[in-house]
Amino acid sequence: MTTNPPNLRPDLAPSARITETPQSNQPTIGMVSLGCPKALVDSERILTRLRAEGYGISPDYAGADAVIVNTCGFLDSAKAESLDAIGEALVENGKVIVTGCLGAEPDYIREHHPRIMAVTGPHQYEQVLDAVHAAVPPDPDPFVDLLPASSVQLTPRHYSYLKISEGCNHKCKFCIIPDMRGKLASRPAHAVLREAEKLVQNGVRELLVISQDTSAYGLDRKYDINPWKDVEVRSHITDLARELGQLDAWVRLHYVYPYPHVRDLIPLMADAGCNVLPYLDIPFQHAHPDVLKRMARPAASARTLDEIKAWRAICPDITLRSTFIVGYPGETESEFQTLLDWMDEAQLERVGCFQYENVDGARSNDLPDHVPAEIKQERWDRFMEKAQAISEAKLRAKVGQTLEVIVDEVDDEAATCRTKADAPEIDGNLFIDEGFENLKPGDIVTVEVDEAGEYDLWGKPV
What we know:
The protein folds into four domains: about 30-135, 3-Layer(aba) Sandwich (Rossmann fold); about 155-285, Transcription Regulator spoIIAA; about 315-395, Transcription Regulator spoIIAA (2-Layer Sandwich), CATH 3.30.750; about 400-460, CATH 2.40.50.140. It has a six-stranded parallel beta sheet with strand order 6-9-12-13-14-15. A five-stranded parallel beta sheet has the order 2-1-3-4-5, sandwiched between helices. A five-stranded mixed beta barrel has the order 16-17-18-20-19. It is α/β, with parallel strands linked by helices. About 30% of the residues lie in helices and about 20% in strands. Residues about 145-150 have low confidence and may be disordered.
């Protein structure tokens, strides 16, 4: 039994899980997947294509004929982590193909690791396959290997990420992801719904909807109409969420910018007949209008508080998760205090926080008045202390309540579960340490909460 540490980087996906055993004499590929859930979905698609061509998926370096490292370029610290992972794969295996966000900077990668076999950018699936073919020629057995019945999943079988779009039209000064992944490119609604339906048919109990900007879904398609079974569905987040909510699985929305039309999602969350969870992951980033302006983000924190009040009036059980940046260039003590005061009023249930750091190529690097490291750390500590106190009070109020939870893991000590208010690995857990012996991952059970901590709950089945 483990509890979530409160300082997990909120941009990270769960660690990739490879459980397949390659067949003998089958060419095998290993995968190291770093960064966010969007990158994890890219890794799943690459491995699905490779498995369909007859490749086995190796869970370790030694058993692989080559290794793909799917990199992250979100922060300079993430770039360093990616370079370390490439170096480790070179030492342990020797045949390494690099893809992902950092792959958009091939010269930078080759400067550090000239022995890599190939470099491709994010979501360049065909180029990755070409590189694998060159390194390890396929040798398919058409009676065994081709056309697998289901896709390769790197998450536990009972939940899956569902990517609805690529890219982003925002120009936030601290972020270079749009430069790496391009402008918004939404998938047709019928394609998303077909994938979601197939996942549910294969046993997925929770769909985690992801993109760079979920609220903007379909804008680039001019919200075109898609036929889906006996209805017509716009490529619009409201229509998409409504149809996803009819499937037999929880639907959790991530990376939702607080555009005005987000309020149309809230009645779906309050509808007992719809499986869209009362949960919104919204990257507010800060609360002071001057900081938001320096970030090149909408500076409407007061109106945001009004929106939060309106959402809670419609759906009192809604859980709000957000991420923030402290120590952004030019941030004064007064501006930081405004953020703390905003937190007191907003009372967000789930919060993650970054200390600002420069990223090569970001426009924020050139801003004046960078905040010293010791002040960034001190502000991060104060912010997390505030967030922790809010979380602890919110969780204490749940003691005695009856909640539905989904089981993630079962060991000798307890069943590790999540409530509707908790996304995998970035939020808290609910532990059942009595009467859990017959539970298994993916079960959805009802519990009575009998204990609360700073980030986690404990309960017993009812």
